[in-house]
Amino acid sequence: MSYVQPSTPGTKGDVTTKNGTQSWFYTDTVKDHFFNPRNFMHEDANSDDYNAVGKVGSPACGDELRVWMKVGPETEKILDFRWKTFGCGSAIASTSMCSVMVTENGGMTLTEARGLKPQDIMERLGGLPSRKFHCSVLCDKALRDAINDYYRRAGQFDKMIVEATRVIDPVSKVTDHDIEEAVLEGATTVEAVQAKTKVGVGNPSVLPAVEELIRFYREKYFGAESK
User: Fold this and answer.
1) What integer pLDDT is reported at residue 13 of this predicted model?
2) CATH class entry, domain 167-222
3) From the candidates 88, 98, 135, 139, which is the catalytic residue?
4) Using CA atoms, how far apart are residues 124 and 94, in angstroms rounded to an integer?
């Protein structure tokens, strides 16, 4: 659990854990989008004005994000993008920035929006702490879910892209997606991933595959030089 505190002599960053063992800085851009979120879906807004909805996560796991899009049927450009999230400051700032990026300059096309990566959002924010990287992935996934919803409503099922998962450990029922999420939350060793998912605990034969996936996701999200 983390909390925001003012910068004072002796503190390492804007946010520290309660036991003081970890801390990190947020950029001014992140703070701006947290305290002044753009394109938030207010209670008095009419969701019927939007022709696509996306959702990812759940309050039970700590982060839930819903997005609403208005897409031009002729151009497939995102004309409006609204959102609500139950999550931390990084999740709020990332989604706020995402909403700006997909609607600025007349709006991205759905094809362009599908090419938006978490790293692009982080770059516009000026960076996020590594343990908060998964927050930028949340809005990326919700955006893709909304794009699929638009095509589903339009009856263009051939344009929908379903993100598949595969079971890595049939004993614990852990999937590659579960391992990806664990890495995004900071688990970058087999032991750390096992602590989060229990993968391979009763089936050690799957551990080589787990190691390969950890290496793949670590390099994908944090760069080849990460350890």
Assistant:
1) 59
2) mainly alpha
3) 135
4) 9
Fold agreement (27-159, 167-222): no
Active site residue 88: no
Per-residue pLDDT at 226: 53
Residue 61 appears among annotated catalytic residues = yes
**Rounded distance between C-alpha atoms, residue 32 and residue 107, angstroms:** 22
Q: Model's pTM, two decimal places?
A: 0.72
Q: Please name the fold of domain 27-159.
A: Sufe protein. Chain: A (3.90.1010)
Domain ranges within the chain, ordered by starting residue: 27-159, 167-222
* pLDDT one-digit tens code per residue, 75-107: 999 999 999 988 788 889 999 999 999 999 999
